[in-house]
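Technical appendix A lists one of the benchmark inputs used to test multi-chain prediction within the project. The record comprises two sequence entries:
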Amino acid sequence: MDLLGEGKKVLLGNEAIARGALEADIDIATTYPGTPSSEIADSLAAVARYLKNAGKEVPFYFQYSVNEKVALEFAAAASHAGLRALTCMKHVGLNVASDALMTYAYIGSKGGHVIVTADDPSCHSSQNEQDNRCYAKFSSLPMLEPSSPQEAKDMTMEAIELSEKLELPVILRTTTRISHVRGVVKLGKLEMKEKKGKFEKSGLTVTVPEVARKLHPVLLKKMEKAREMSNKSKFNFVEDFGGKYGIITSGAAYNYVREAVDDLNLKCKIFKIGMSYPLPDKKIIEFLNECEKIIVVEELEPFMEEQIRTIIEQNDIDIEIYGKGFGELKRYYEYNMDIVYAALAKFFGIKWDKKESKEKITDRPPVLCPGCPHRATYYAVKQVAPPDTIYPTDIGCYTLGLLPPYKTADFLLCMGSSIGTGCGFSYATDQKVVAFIGDSTFYHAGLPALVNAVHHNHNFVVAILDNSTTAMTGHQPHPGNAIDGMGNEAIAMDMEKVVKGLGVKHVEVIDPRNLNEAKEAFKRALEYEGLSVIISKAPCILLERKIKKERKLYQVNQNNCKKCKICITKFACPAFYFDDDAIKINAALCTGCGVCPQVCPFNAIEVVK
Amino acid sequence: MKISIIIAGVGGQGVITAANIIAKAALKEDYNVITSELHGMAQRGGNVECSVRIGNVFSPIIANETADAIVAFEPLEALRNLSKVRKNGVVLTDINPIIPPLVSIGIGSYPPVDEIFEKIEKHCRLIKINADEIARKAGSILTKNVVMLGAFHSLQILPLKEESILEVIRETIPEKYIEMNMKAFKMGKEEMKRFSSQNE
């Protein structure tokens, strides 16, 4: 296993963070999965299971928590018991955990605690591209920003060390182009020991107003110390390639800047900022004094730029500064070499022909897999719901219901929002409302919203798409599973009992692959006055395919086929294709789910004998 | 030295595995290597794109018109990345189209394959192989990525020894599939020999 190896390895940025955590001998790791952060926790889960299967002691505890807030709270407690901890999540996950984060900063930490936020500029797999560096400033917590897998590992260890020196949790902020980049990583020593902590009742750890008022200035004082550490940090360094022009950069943007120096033959100094909160003010002043003009190259918000502009003004430094708005340096989308080269060429007065991507190619968006049970649920609902039915949706594979022909996604904010907005739509309109939410998402943030819907007697349908896993992020287990992330036995929630226990009167559990059953159940739910819940239960086909080796295959009987194309235009399983004029089923893609024969009005789809 | 390669295809074709094999082989020969992948929901039929860069490189993303080669597991995905390849660069592509499901229901269109090839040829050197067929002959369609690797390696764009790549394949692929993949690599390589003798 590369993660437990030695020497040099090619590691994913996220794997490098996991390795850094192991080298720092962390005791606790918690997460809720989310792209592009998932492989950090998945790597630790894999290490735990690997050691367990080899009959060895697992020297840390790992947990896929129910959501990011609980993950952070768990680790904060462990830190206060003196243990070292890592908590990782995607950028929007930190919004969920932010309530805990803001006050955790006041209380601080004991055992080293690194909080990883993986941001997603360009929204490759996210609902927004918020810049979580703002959380460092907002919460007053130190932050490190790696540029490569090697730095991701090194900074994870540095974060643990800084955290223990400052008695504050430390944020490690990556982006997709750090988390999902592979590079050569020089590994250090692994000396992992299992520890149990002890909570000493000594500090100011109950944030009643009087305590909170005492703690806020304490936090600010710690951050002054952090600024001194930033001024001395080895991750804040200057590379001198001659000349008087300065570039200040961080994270993924550094890589484009650094390569431009070679390709455009730039005479410049680069200030590469690795500890980007608090900024190393003294070092920056020194740097500014050595330069004639500077440009700040950073993705998303002008996070460093605004602070540097303040430093310039406060210290009365006479220098030209450029950043957001210069060339194509924008506040949205990720940077790349083309954008950064064009901006730097302009800054240095070099002629540069920007190469544009030429033609628009037909998109190939991801679609629901052949055999995905969500397709059957969507097909059934569309058959029985009025055309103006509103479909609030949620975060998961099933968001793909957005695409035609299903179009069963009308509104989405965040994890759990399907039920919360379902409450609102059902009150605000006379339209029918069917809210779709996955099982993992339901446990994550759907529960409180469902309580709200029950309590206020809102009139709509909640469809819980229960495929027994957190499918989209890579099949992590969730509270509905009888086994946890480390491979230990766990207590599985019974979804039906949970929903009934919350007081929902009309609850039905269906297998959506039986289309008639599904249609009838949705009909009853739509007619019901009040809140109804349909638990549409069938396993994720990707998991089922791994377990079940035998499968029935289906084919189109060309004699019966009338080419009505319902299987393609309404059901839209990707296993169907046109061969000249005939409709056929691709045997390599067919999973044998058995739903399409129920869709075909002419009995033209049959089992291959 | 800088070598920049794009490997592109559709979810499930083994694009990321192919990139990883090259990266690990590069490390075996002590090169600096960076790869980057975009695979939001790769298993669900979306396009997958990996960059592999070897040598004195920092950026994981390849700038427009600077890639030395595109290795495409599907023709439309070759075309999608065409603006990345440099003048006189190489596009090695499989010839079997995979029609996006949205096109099947009438949204967007899949251009005629010959048109795709014409567009590529206007811009750079095009090499087409029927990797699906070769992979099936090797024992399984799942070896397609290794067929492509075998073919691509024989073009001598990668500064890597064949043995380094084969060693990584032996180290990373489950034991029962190693022989089949060795065969796939060799058949990919032989296909290129046939191609170059035809074009001489």
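Residues 71 and 178 of chain B are 22 Å apart (CA to CA). Residues 2-103+110-198 of chain B form a domain with the Pyruvate-ferredoxin Oxidoreductase; domain 3 fold (CATH 3.40.920.10). Comparable benchmark entries are summarised in Table A2.
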